[in-house]
Amino acid sequence: MANILDAIRKNQDGLLEEWVQGIKSGVRRRDLIDDRELKAQSAEVLAAICDVSADTTLDNLNAPAWQPLKDLLAGLSASRAVQGFTPSETAMFVLSSKSPLFNLIQRQAGNDAKQLFADVAIVGDFVDKLALHTTDSFIHGRDQVIMRQQEEMLELSTPVVTLWDGIVALPLIGTLDSARTQVVMESLLQAIVKTNSRFAIIDITGVPTVDTLVAQHLLKTITAARLMGAECILSGIRPQIAQTIVHLGINLEDVITKAKLSDAFRLALERSGRTVTRLEKSKGSALARYGEQ
């Protein structure tokens, strides 16, 4: 095994050229990676293999000496996941190194068939393990991307709207779970502080169902807003939701509720010392005007 690593070090440049040519002649994503970047990545992998200590063996990939190579492949896999490569395409990048390595072993072994068979088995197993590690790292990197995208979508799906000076609204759409409730609470509290609002309307018209868990999440958000000095109004209470709340015995006695967002907005205006009047126009149309008392 030491002889194999020595042979790789002595023939590093030739292996690199043969490896890159093999990738170019095969199926590869030219739309995602150019020749220069492909050669640079291949050179980094070969350099990491050659940089291990002299007493390192190929049969133990868990040895500390191989950690730099594994970290390199993990970073490469994560970047390829962002670029749009598939796990199989990333694994094939590593597996394509087998052909030049086998050719090198054949030249080194000469007519010694027994040594050739043993070295091929060792190198093949080594490259296979590297490919598996690359695939695992790729999937982990893709999962991280998906998780980050989900967090960004959660933030975008909970916009806080300023309806009037001192009045903000948070329209909720979809199911509320613990993770989303945390985002909702943070967004609402930040908006209350930023706008110095005294009234916050939480509209659940777009929430399909309200069970005990959802009600608990809403109550936590309302309690947190009250601690920030804002009075909360819960709007969007449909007949089905009202029946569900009563059936489950959920206590909303301390929460102001309204059937529609417009009713909640009107109440917030009134409580903030504002009135709504209509100005009659000459052609019979009406124009709403808001005034402060």
From TrEMBL:
CDD domains per UniProt: STAS_RsbR_RsbS_like
Source superkingdom: Bacteria
Residues annotated as domain STAS: 157-268
A Pfam family: RsbRD_N
UniProt entry keywords in alphabetical sequence: Phosphoprotein
Identification of the protein by name: Anti-sigma-factor antagonist
Organism of this sequence: Granulicella mallensis (strain ATCC BAA-1857 / DSM 23137 / MP5ACTX8)
